[in-house]
Each structure stands twice: as C-alpha cells, then as structure tokens.
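Explain this one:

_____
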Amino acid sequence: MFRRIAPFGIAVLAGLLATAAGASDIDIINAPEIDISQSAVAQGWYIRGDLGYSGWTKGGKPDYTVYAPGGVIASQESFDSARFSDDLSYGVGVGYQFNDMIRADLTTDFFSGDLRGDSNIAAPCSGADPAGTSCGFNHDADYSAINVMANGYVDIGTFAGFTPYIGAGVGATRVSWGDLNSQPFCVAGGAACSGTTYAGESLAGYDSWRFTYALMAGATVDITERLKLDVGYRYSDTAGGRMFQYGATEQGYGAAGAKGRDEGFKKHEIRVGFRIPTW
C-alpha cells in the first residue's frame, strides 16, 4: 500500500513546490493597498433627541378608601370610568454603537396629561339626602412625569437604505400628580334626591418613583453621514403607585397616608427622532 501511495504523495509535493516557486515571481511590492478604514466596524458615541405621541394610554381605574367617623374604613371604592388624555413626549439621550448590530443608550423623557373619571359610593352624600340615594363624583386631575431608561437595541441589517431594529429598556418614572378635584352629586335610587348642591373637594396629589419597562421596534435611515432619522413604535408599562391624599374631614377621622392609588400607565407611542454619531 505504501509503495502505491508514496509516488502519488511525492508527485503532489513536487506540484506544490513548483507552485510556490512560481508564486515567488509575483510582484508583491506593487500590489494594491487595502483600505481597512472602509471595512472597519462602525462604533462610537452618539446623541439623540426624540418626540413621541401616545395615541392610546391605559391607566386602569384608580381605587380609593372611604373613612367614616371613629377612624373606621367605611368602604373600598374604585373609579367606574377613567379616561386618560393622549399626550406628547419629548426626550434626549446619549448612547454607544458597539458594532454594526448592537447599540445601547441612556434616555430621559418628559410627558404630561390629564385624567377624567367618575365613581359612586353606596351611601348618601350627606344627611340632606335620604337613604336609598347614593353619592356620585366627577373627578379630574393632571399629571406630569419624567422617566430615565437604559435601552439596548439590535440593528437587524440594512435593506434598501433602511435599517430595522428591535429593542428593550428598563428604568424608572417619577409620576407627579396634581390635585384631584372631586365634585359630588346625588344619584337617585330607591328614593329621590333632595336637590342639595354639594361643594367640590380638592385632594392633594402625590409624587412617586415607579418601575418602568419598554419594548421598541422601528427603522433608521441615513439622512447624511452625520445624521440618522429614527422612526419607531414603543410600548411602555409604568407600575402603579400613590395618587392622592385624604382631605381634611377624613384626616379628622384619623385617616393617614394615601387615600387613592392609580394602576400605572400602559402607553403605545409613535416616535420620531434623530441620532447624531460622534465618531
């Protein structure tokens, strides 16, 4: 076997040596240079600015506690309806492009809006209305918020000049509620209302930090070598927290702490922004 394989191996080796000898005659001195700057992976810092529009904000139905004389809880209630306004957001951030696919940034966004709702308790508004009536309330309040998010993205690839991406972020949102204004009114039931008009009440709002996460998808396009347009969708979910305090009457009954709590915010946003690479 060895005698048959050896001549073939010698022939192959001789061919390789001949090829190597021929290659030595190639003029490598005048070979064209490779511009490695054109094949380098894109990386470096960037800054960004964004505008967002939330066409759908869901905040659930806030709940609240009703105290009675003697410092006892009369009932636990929730809003029958809660309508959050569409809001605009704006923000800035700084990020780093690690390679052609992976980037991350730290962003700060600001937004504000208002809440309109109503609720009802199964008791008369006061002794002026008879048993068999209940007390309804119209509520309204404003809020503002700032969130700080750490985000990561995967750029999927460039197709016809567009670079689609997906991303996710985690962070915290400080929600600042303004005063909750409540206007009581009698609701007739088994008995008719007396026609008494009740004065409205203003309950001080709370400020609190809440956990927030977000999911993003969109696409970028190079406007110039130094400017990228970013158009995308973001879903964000901010946890619930304290909303408003007890009024003077219930505090006199011994109530303390938060009277009302909201269920947080779930927002669907369309966002448009610009990224400016610094490399």
Notes: The longest strand covers residues 134-155.
